[in-house]
Amino acid sequence: MLEIFHKSYFYINKKPIFGTLKNLFGEMKQFYKSKSLLKLSFLFALLFSVISVVNSCKKDDDEEFTDHVVKFEVKTTTGGVIKTVVTQVGTSQNTIFDPVGTTWTSDEFFVNSSQAQLNLDANAVLPSADSELVINLYIDGEIAKTDKKKGAGPMVASIDYSFLEL
Length: 166
Hints:
The protein is an alpha+beta fold. The chain has helices spanning 2-9, 17-32, 35-57, and strands at 11-12, 15-16, 67-76, 81-89, 92-97, 103-105, 109-112, 118-126, 132-139, 142-150, 153-161. It is rod-shaped and about 110 Å long.
């Protein structure tokens, strides 16, 4: 019985199975050792390296933050009295009470565009119905935003500006 099992189990097409397996492994070994496979592997490694370097060196689409020259200005018509001016750059707030004259102007200063918010608020007492309170925000020497209030009595004007686009 063992002899019948031996003959049917270890033979394929009446040839010993070990010889067939030996030939199969020999062919696989020869394929992996072939120079064309080595060249192909080297080519893939080189291609992957070049793609990695190109992707890491390409310029990012993110815009860099830039510095801007900023100035605040508050004006009233003749006879108007500026009571309070409040400026805010980012989280830094500054309050000026009872500035002298009908015009108040901040010094020019640099603000990086990474600062999320610029604010200017002013209140004044105006003498007549045709009097005006005007506040301006200058960025890089040009008026970026203006708010005008016209009338008699206490008036409040406000500007909010952001460098960041939402």
